[in-house]
Design brief:
Number of helices: 3
Largest sheet: 4 strands, mixed
Order of helices and strands: EHEHEEH
Radius of gyration: 13 Å
Shape: globular
Strand content: 25-35%
Number of strands: 4
Distance between the termini: 25 Å
C-alpha cells in the first residue's frame, strides 16, 4: 500500500540574497512539516513577484486549497505560527 502525505498548505516565501530576515523566516517555516514551502528570489523571479504584489522581502504567502489565507511581511514568528496553525 502506497501512502502519500499531502501538504495541507502551500507557502510561497519571497526572499532576496543576503537577507537575514528571509533566512530566519525559512527556518521558522521549516518547523511545520504540514507546509509545502516554495522559495522564490525576488531579484530573479520578478514576474512572479509582481503577479503576487510583492514589494519587499521577506514576504510569506499562505495558500490553502489554492486560496490565499494570509501574508506575513518581514520576519514575524508569531504571525507565521498563527497562519501555520490554520493549515492544520
Amino acid at each position: 500500500m502506497l501512502t502519500v502525505a499531502l501538504a495541507l498548505c502551500q507557502v510561497l516565501l519571497f526572499e532576496q540574497p543576503g537577507c537575514a530576515s528571509c533566512k530566519a523566516s525559512y527556518r521558522e517555516l521549516s518547523k511545520y512539516p504540514n507546509l509545502k514551502v516554495e522559495v522564490y528570489d525576488i531579484t530573479k523571479d520578478r514576474e512572479l513577484a509582481k503577479a503576487y504584489g510583492i514589494v519587499g522581502s521577506p514576504t510569506v504567502i499562505f495558500l490553502k486549497n489554492g486560496q490565499e489565507i494570509g501574508r506575513v511581511f518581514g520576519y514575524i514568528p508569531s504571525m507565521i505560527k498563527s497562519l501555520a496553525e490554520k493549515c492544520s
